[in-house]
Fold these 4 entries.
Entry 1:
Amino acid sequence: MNPAVKEDEIRIKEAFADRNWSEIKSADSWVIFKVMSEFVAGFDRLAKIGPCVSIFGSARTLPDNPHYKMAEEIAAKLVRHGYGVITGGGPGIMEAGNKGAFEQGGKSVGLNIKLPFEQQSNIYIDVDKNINFDFFFVRKVMFVKYSQGFIVMPGGFGTLDELFEAMTLIQTKKIGRFPIVLVGTSYWSGLLDWIKQVMLVEKNISPEDMKLINLVDTPDEVVKVIDDFYSKYLLKPNF
């Protein structure tokens, strides 16, 4: 049997297994304290990082991929314009974002998540801003709490999760109307067409919601969206 399938079966069986109250209490209490410790560590180390922009994208993007090179250039330009960069801390687009920021001497933050494969911290994260998480939801809080903009490069399920998380929080006014920038017309146009032609037509979203998204193709366009936002609201560092 495939080891991954076997592991899934074990987890599913454990979810249905009967546990006595003592087991439930001790296990759940440990999880609560673990979650608290991750929140405390994140809040403590990110409280004064100043204005930052998150860059999302695939962990599987190789350094010779044009998307990697573009993410690196975007991060470098952001730093030169006074912003720090936050990524998921891993390889691929995340590494490119941290590399671009790090090599320009800017703040380079990595919010790494422990996964069975493909995810490990890249070498371009500031030592004091490299944070590891076990829980996706804690990591997401750090992204949205300390970012004043979201740049979304081509990616997979995780990237879509981060994109729609940001959109939902802005739509429901749980966070400010920070800019969301999708990079790559050819990559994202199909998704946006579906949103417009299906979700919007079915009235599951409003026309106003479409204004949450900026679709661009060049690093200069990305930085302009962020700069225009900051200029409009006269934002200052968050400390």
Entry 2:
Amino acid sequence: MMFFLIIQVFANHIIRSSSLGKIKWMSLAGGIAVSYIFVYILPSLHHEQDDFGDTALELAMESELYFFGLIGIVVFYTLSKLAERHRYRSGATIEDSFFFIQTSLFFIYNMLISYIMFAADQTTEQVIFYGVAVGLHFMAVAHDMYRENNKKYRKYGRFMLAGGILCGWLIAEFTPHSSIALSIVFAFISGAIMFNVIKHELPSEGSAHLPTFIISAFTYSTVTLLLKLFFDW
């Protein structure tokens, strides 16, 4: 959990002070994030759907968790567009209210990701390995918000997002877990992650280092598949 908090609060300092460079950092994060979707999120969602049929009895169909994933995409896309519309109505600059709406949205986003990471039945090794992908995702989102309004992000935005991570961990640690609720939250946040990875982490032509993106995507995928093969993850 401390790793996520440090990443969230100091993400832009880490990027600026690193010899890797901002473009390579973003390409690295984007490659790993895309790999994370295809080698972890989608297979896990399929597994959760199979298990959901055993826990929800006659209420279960064959695709309801995928529907919750769709809801996650639609909700975050809709809220993102509404926030952008509010921004443009307020003028060319980002107003306080827009940034607060945006930060509140990602507070909830971070909270749900943190909750799933720590409430799910995973080994310490799995949490650490998958936590790298999640941490880089947090870093990419943080950098995107920093670019839009660095003063407000440094002043309170990064601490609000870190607070979301802390709240998710507290909920995971001190509240009872329902397997059905966990499956639904996982499906919902999976859809949201897919949307935000595409929106924030697929680097544009002018800000991409293609070799870094390709190498990171296939390296993370290969390592993940080998770990699943040898350790039955």
Entry 3:
Amino acid sequence: MSARMAGPKGRYGVLRGVLTGGGALLAGGLALGLASGSGLAAGAALAPPAVYPAETWQGKTIAVVRVLDKLDTHVEVLSVPVGGTAHYKNLEIGVARCLTRPPTLAPDAAAWLDLRDTHPDGVAFHGWMLAAEPGLGVFESPLYDVRMVRCEGQDTAPTPLPLAAPVVPVLPSGTPQAAPGDAPAPDGTQQLVAPPGMKPTPGTTQPAPAPSAAPVPSAPSSQVPLPAPVPFGDKGRTGGTEPKIGDTY
């Protein structure tokens, strides 16, 4: 029986040790996080991030286009230089411009494409295609599906202007400034003293008047007569003032 109980107790001890060690690690992690965050809580004001306006674009020299052949489900990704033309089966792909978003804005790309299907009665498309919104420019062909992917290559016009450095905001001071000429009180608070001839404003702290010196008791004069000593005896008793034999005191 004792051998059987030793196993569960041992397992309970191991489990208790694991839980205790995990709690110690969690407490240490929290303490480290608070210690590292204390510097952030007491940090200075930060400037807002510099962001380009929403209508800003950057020109590129290469347009990446994806073409889907609806007959055999084959997908081809083509890199077409701006001003050039690429061919995929019976499809001609011409690129006039390719624009992309700056890094501070949401990623997107737009290209002006000239698409033409060389089959008899083939359709054509001339206009902008956007990567993030393909439904705005659709090549309505029964054979091919064309999508704009991204822009690559070197930077060309239009080129966005460099971002201006944002101004760091100035935080208001939390401690009131003392007026010149006001002396601090002994407890560290500032006391406002009204100028001569003016009444103090209600709510302002005025310095307390200096306490007057306590009167010092004078020594007894030697000319004041002292009280007469009380004669020995019991005047309150009946039968005289002299002590009698047998009286108890």
Entry 4:
Amino acid sequence: MAMAGMGEDTRSDRGLHARVVNALGLQIVDSRYAPGDILNLDRLADEFAVSRSVLREALRVLQSLGMVEPRQRVGTQVLARHSWDLFSPQIISWRGRGDYFAQMREMLELRLGIEPVAARLSARLMTAEQRAAVATAAAVMVDADRAHDGRRYLEADVDFHTLILQGSGNAVMGHFASTVAALLRTREQEKRFTITDYTPASAHRHNDLALALVQGDEDAAYRWAYATIEATLNEFVAESTGTAPTPS
């Protein structure tokens, strides 16, 4: 019985720890704490109604993400954004709730430099099974757009880009797939969600990219990958400035 109780305590601590990590991470992302601020651990323990040991464990997670750092004889200090692990799916999720457009612009600009190259490599290296899977994902996106099924569209979009990055044969690009997946899933938090006036053209660009991959056309794969991400980037930049372009 004692062992069962200990197990329950451990699970309870893990739940509290996760809650504190999420809440405090969001507060830092939302600028409730400015870079250089020293966290008052007694106040935080009271705010979250947790023990100091649970709070310290949560702070270790945030430290591993580059968001805070313990300073000898000073305390735990909040770090500036340039220190954060901005590729972390957890930070991407937090930024998606309050820093959505800025993060989208930054990450889409980065993806412009990575995914077209990944698409070129995938056109050369993908297995027959991977080519079939990417074609299926693109077809699902077209169908989900017609059905206005945002959830199905999003999951197919995640599958599509994951397949391209992992099919490149480049381990670093393959690892980037989890970052892209987390970024795409922040659209769940966007007020308009996934299906928009831009979606039909985007779905068909994905389909043209899939065709290039299936045919092993490296140049076409590069062009369609670039065009797909560039169009999305232009869309988000325009919407963030209130000058939305005409869907094409």
